[in-house]
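Subject: for your reference before the review

Hello V.,

The reviewers asked for a structural picture of the protein, and I figured it would be easier to keep everything in one thread rather than splitting it across files. Below is the amino acid sequence we used in the manuscript, unchanged from the supplementary table.
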Amino acid sequence: MPLSDEQLVSFWRAWPWIVSDRVAEFDDVLHRPISATSAVQARTRDLIGKWETIEPDEPVDIVLGYFREMLSSLHDEGEDIGKIYDWARSLSQFLQELNARRAMQIWRETFERFARGKRDPAKHLDEDVLESLSESFLRDAYKPWLDLSMHVRTSEQKWLLGRGRRTEFDELLWDNFFAERDVDPGNIASLGYGQVRVREWWRVVRTSLNEEQIGQLRREQIENTKAFAQSRTPSWKIDDSIDETMVCSGFPVFDTLRT
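And here is what came back from the structure prediction:
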């Protein structure tokens, strides 16, 4: 899969959490599409060694050149780089356009309020339809994300606390990428999984709604955001249509990306 320079930069920045042993702990849910973990880690070690020889004032093209070479080698060894990229892009906000992820967040927050009952009775959409959407969102989107989030959270402090609590490979990643920001890569993946579940939920329920109901849902969303959102929401966010926001057609079905 050919990547643009912009995509390559984003992929390079995401690579440490993608390949971490910490994220692999949650493969029963995340299904990271890496075929040979040991080979990927070995290539990543070599890449870090090369990066350490680069002077701070050297152009970023040198860094990206080494990264592109590594991806090419992994492809030759049987890794599906396109699938790994699509998997990471599905999970990572930072591999998506800024306006798209902002709009997605505002819709996600709306559905979470609906699911928690933080809404007035439906005024535009049939109440039974809105209640059914709220229940299915809670079951198929919110709860799966919450389960993973709690799983990550129960071990996050242990992972962050110090040496001996991370694998040897994750120590290398910690020293080079995560220590300065005190970041758990499992938390990065967990946050992204929330938007995955919303997108996959919408992919299914969208087929049960006609265009009139989509318009009615949008009016419910606008009024709910104005009435119940904790922060003031810019109008451009609530004016984005849900189909444009969810952009399901721009992402493969997540379960098809597993190894």
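For the response letter, the relevant points are probably these. The first helix runs from residue 5 to 19. The chain is about 70% helix and 0% strand.

Happy to draft the paragraph if you're swamped.

O.
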